[in-house]
Design goal:
The chain is α+β, with helices and mostly antiparallel strands and 199 residues long. Helix content is 31%, strand content 25%. It contains four helices and nine strands. It has helices at 14-46, 49-56, 118-126, 176-186, and strands spanning 62-64, 70-75, 86-95, 101-104, 109-112, 132-137, 148-149, 156-158, 164-175. Strands 1, 2, 3, 4, 5, 6 and 9 form a seven-stranded antiparallel beta sheet that branches. Strands 7-8 form a two-stranded antiparallel ribbon. The termini are far apart.
């Protein structure tokens, strides 16, 4: 008969076991962090608009209105907010979810509050003068299923059903009637006024 020779295995030191368990804990924590941030990136890049907005709502400082507009204050403004009868003077930049810019003001731009897409109008009415804000406008409050093209090139700049992201700085606002008077004065006077004297 043959006999089996037993090879004694020396016991593992406790310090080695502690390091092994510590390594396992670090690996699990690292995997969880990668999964969390990886999921956030995937949601930002690939999820549908509803999933993106649900995740975005949890971001610190983002609030959602009853209509579904999401807004974040970057710099707090002061005073009153514009109304539908005002013209707002703003700097703005509009991007798609992938970061592609589709529009931006080159200088402070007057925008009639009531004549914008619904989400932009609602956002303007929540802002205060001197403040800077970020808006996430779902398609139903933007252009919906209508794609927008650049009239100069014919290139599609906003695909149908796009979620729009705007950074808006509200510089000033004034009643539309006052704005119209100012524009008429710059163009040569109010209608019915006598012509300027030629002295």
């Amino acid at each position: 008969m043959s006999s089996v020779t037993a090879v004694p295995i020396p016991p593992t030191k406790r310090s080695y076991l502690a390091w092994i368990w510590f390594g396992i804990a670090v690996a699990i924590a690292g995997g969880a962090a990668l999964a969390w941030f990886g999921t956030a990136t995937v949601v930002a890049e690939r999820a549908d608009n509803v999933s993106f907005l649900a995740a975005n709502k949890a971001v610190d400082g983002v609030t959602e209105t009853a209509s579904g507009l999401q807004i974040q204050t970057i710099t707090e403004g002061t005073g009153a907010s514009p109304t539908d009868s005002d013209v707002a003077l703003v700097n703005y930049k509009g991007t798609l979810r992938n970061g592609e810019e589709f529009d931006a003001s080159q200088q402070p731009t007057p925008l009639p509050v009531a004549n914008m897409i619904p989400g932009f109008t609602e956002g303007l009415k929540l802002m205060k003068k001197g403040g800077k804000y970020r808006l996430w406008i779902k398609p139903e409050l933007g252009y919906g299923s209508e794609a927008k093209t650049d009239p100069r090139t014919g290139r599609e700049v906003i695909p149908a059903d796009s979620l729009l992201i705007f950074e808006v700085e509200l510089l000033e606002f004034l009643p539309q009637s006052v704005y119209m008077q100012m524009m008429q004065q710059q163009m040569g006077g109010a209608p019915g006024a006598p012509p300027p004297s030629g002295n």
